[in-house]
Amino acid sequence: MAVLDPIKANVLAVRIIPNVDRGFAEKMNLRENERCIGFLTADIDDATYTAIDEATKQADVRVAYAKSFYAGSGHASGPLSGEIIAILAGPDPAEVRAGLNAALTYIRDEAYFYSANENNSIAFFPHVISRTGSYLSEVAGVPLGTPMAYLIAPPLEATFGIDAALKAANVTMRVWFNPPSETNFSGALLTGDQAAARAAARAFQEAVLDVARNPLKF
Fold first, then answer.
1. Over the Cα atoms of the chain, what is R_g?
2. Rounded distance between C-alpha atoms, residue 206 and residue 218, angstroms
3. What is the number of other CB atoms lying within 10 angstroms of the CB of residue 89?
4. Which of 23, 99, 103, 141 is the most exposed place for a label (fewest CB within 10 A)?
5. 67 — phi, psi (to 5°)?
6. What is the pLDDT of residues 58-83, one digit of tens each?
7. Exposed, middle or buried by CB within 10 Å (0-12, 13-18, 19+), for 27?
């Protein structure tokens, strides 16, 4: 594998429950009109978080639950567990199916980690979202449709890269995923206009690559 080769997530399992038991729905804090849920697991969490946000833009669904698993996909509880479970809730199976399809397409075609070194042992996520859906808007506390740089890397690389991103562009840090996260990574959600978000992601990428090339230089 070469530097900047994409590292794509694998969706491991998908299911729909057309009419959720109402007692179970209450425990999941579903809304009155949310009768149907769809859920998926995948082996890369951050790609999936951006994908389920995309689902909220493409269908009448809400992210009812999304959580990373401790220690990541390398220590999963089973072959279909991966690194994350996400649940989409909607009024009927057609909308939930549309949301799941949008998420799966986004994972396949848009949301990639990249290799920072030749042996693929350092992976990072310099992802730009042109306009947030309802999920990431709520996570970041920003209006719907806000441009965002979603930046993830191992802890030292991420910390160095986030500082570079903030200095390179007119962006604001909305969320800091301080190390270690559940998967032992770190990162941030930065917002600005689209040009600023892209500039921040480029600066983050260059900083991560610099650490990967020269880890002991200071």
1. 17
2. 16
3. 26
4. 23
5. -150, 135
6. 999 999 999 999 988 888 889 999 99
7. exposed
Rounded to the nearest integer, the mean pLDDT of the chain is 97
Report yes or no: 34 and 62 within 8 Å, Cβ to Cβ: yes
CB 68 within 8 A of CB 77: no
Tell me which residue of 111, 127, 92 sits closest to 8, measured CA to CA.
111
First to last CA, the chain: 27
Read off the DSSP letter of residue 62.
E
Report how far residue 59's alpha carbon sits from residue 106's, in angstroms, rounded to the nearest whole number.
Answer: 13
Query: What 3-state class would DSSP assign to 31?
Result: coil
pLDDT band at 1 (very low <50, low <70, confident <90, very high): confident
Token pair 């070194």 in the structure block, residue: 117
Place of tokens 């917002």: 191
Coil vs helix vs strand at 127? strand
Q: Which is nearest to 58 in space by CA: 18, 10, 101, 93? A: 101
CA–CA dist 202, 28 (Å, integer): 38
Give the predicted TM-score (pTM) of the model. Answer: 0.97
